[in-house]
Design a protein that fits this description.
The longest helix has 18 residues, at 101-118. The chain has helices at residues 61-67, 101-118, 205-218, 263-269, 296-299, 304-311, 340-344, 388-398, 428-431; strands at residues 17-18, 74-75, 88-96, 152-157, 196-202, 223-234, 285-294, 355-356, 359-365, 371-381, 405-415. The strands form 2 sheets. Strands 3, 4, 5, 6, 7, 8, 9, 10 and 11 form a 9-stranded antiparallel beta sheet that branches. The protein is of the alpha+beta class.
Length: 432
């Protein structure tokens, strides 16, 4: 890969790993109802039999998807970023309701232990049955018997978590900036922000929904879902040998996305280094999530040539203007000055490059006979001020595609490094 790792970006284009091991001990009876501050019971056997673990770097991706294999949970970086992109998404943003720092820490430990189990296809705690008849089950049960389906769970911490409630005000990263208001934004506060987020990606939608549901259940009384988003039809890929997916406008999306196997590009553009600081974020990344509504009824009445001019690529092959193949290097001056590809390209933005993991969505209608549909844009980068912000400024100012889209939700999160072992937990370094 070259530094030109991204050319369709925001508005619509969007080492060491080890398999998590199951606790083989016989399940204990619960002494308390539900999930308490003492942590999680780790008893039930894996659902669906033996679990096959796969690497995160894109090897045998098709085989892994077909087999429903597990993606390793532990590693230097969180899974779900450079991991080969799965087919389905359930993303949730949470408000923290407790004001007790110790209670929040215990919740993060409980969530970590639950995530370790769910990503290997196991039930949470003592599972859906076999516990006290007088107590609710530890697992909601809808994923019982299903394969792991390459489930990944990725956590992030929003700017509002550093407001002083938990003694974290001085630990807010400088890179966790407040995003500026871009021209054309029509952000709904009810679909924006949040103290915490969890991104669940899987090849089975029921597996992804089950994961978020159980984390929300474990956190009941301590956190509450602020907003959530279901997604389907990935709009970008971190696996270059896969066919480039298409967005809801019918165009190939993420042609020049960063590859999950390109360590040099990931180190340069995605992972926080020890030179960036703070120390607790080294090996992590920064996530921008944007809900982008598409006026697809208007788009569907737009002539083909105009659609292609708007994007700067042809619709069938995905080739840039004047070129024959999708992956041919684009010649930006051949495109309209307002073309999406031209405005989003790193050469037009001082080299700004991000890694995208977006998904399409349809959420019913808007009450006026139009589909509420579009792109749930997810972008990871080492520095938001050098990644998403300059690219979106360029697009918001001049992209003719803005006539057909509107950003209606927005959030930013610091995504810490991965969980290293059985005694580690999400955010441990932040709270140390």
């Amino acid at each position: 890969m070259t530094d030109k790792a991204t050319d369709e970006t925001t508005a619509v284009t969007a080492g060491d790993t080890s398999a998590a091991t199951a606790d083989q001990a016989a399940p204990s009876r619960r002494a308390l109802l539900g999930w308490g501050g003492a942590g999680l019971a780790l008893g039930a056997a894996a659902a669906g039999g033996a679990i096959t673990a796969v690497t995160r770097d894109g090897d045998d991706t098709a085989l892994a998807a077909a087999s429903g294999a597990a993606v390793p949970f532990h590693g230097a970086h969180q899974a779900g970023i450079a991991t080969p992109v799965q087919d389905r998404l359930h993303f949730a943003s949470f408000d923290v309701k407790t004001t007790d720092r110790a209670e929040l820490i215990q919740l993060l430990k409980d969530w970590t232990r639950a995530a370790e189990r769910m990503t290997t296809g196991q039930t949470v705690g003592e599972g859906t049955y076999g516990g006290l008849a007088e107590a609710p089950p530890d697992d909601t049960g809808e994923a019982l018997g299903l394969k792991p389906s390459r489930l990944t769970l990725t956590i992030g911490f929003g700017p509002s978590l550093f407001d002083g409630r938990f003694g974290l005000k001085d630990r807010r990263p400088a890179a966790l900036v407040d995003l500026p208001k871009f021209p054309g934004d029509n952000l709904d506060p009810a679909r924006s922000g949040g103290d915490l987020c969890v991104q669940a990606c899987a090849d089975d939608p029921q597996v992804a929904v089950h994961a978020i549901r159980n984390l929300a259940r474990i956190g009941f009384g301590k956190v509450a879902v602020r907003w959530s988003q279901l997604g389907f039809g990935k709009t970008s890929s971190t696996t270059p040998d896969e066919q480039t997916p298409r967005n809801m406008m019918g165009f190939k999306d993420g042609t020049r996305n960063i590859s999950g196997t390109d360590k040099a590009a990931l180190d340069k553009h995605v992972w926080v280094s020890d030179k960036d600081g703070p120390g607790w974020m080294v090996g992590g990344s920064y996530l921008v999530a944007r809900r982008i509504r598409m006026n697809i009824e208007t788009w569907d009445r737009t002539p083909l040539q105009e659609q292609e001019d708007i994007f700067g690529r042809d619709k069938r092959e995905g080739a840039p203007v004047g070129k024959a193949k999708e992956h041919d290097e684009p010649f930006l001056p051949a495109m309209l000055p307002t073309a999406h590809v031209r405005l989003a390209h790193p050469d037009s933005n001082g080299g700004a490059t991000i890694l995208r993991r977006g998904y399409s969505f349809t959420d019913g209608t808007d009450g006026l006979g139009r589909l509420d549909a579009g792109l749930f844009f997810l972008a990871y980068q080492r520095d938001v001020a050098k990644g998403f912000v300059p690219v979106q400024r360029s697009l918001a100012a001049s992209d003719v595609l803005n006539e057909y889209i509107q950003h209606v939700g927005s959030a930013l999160f610091a995504v810490p490094p991965g969980v290293r072992g059985k005694d580690d937990w999400w955010g441990r370094a932040l709270f140390s």
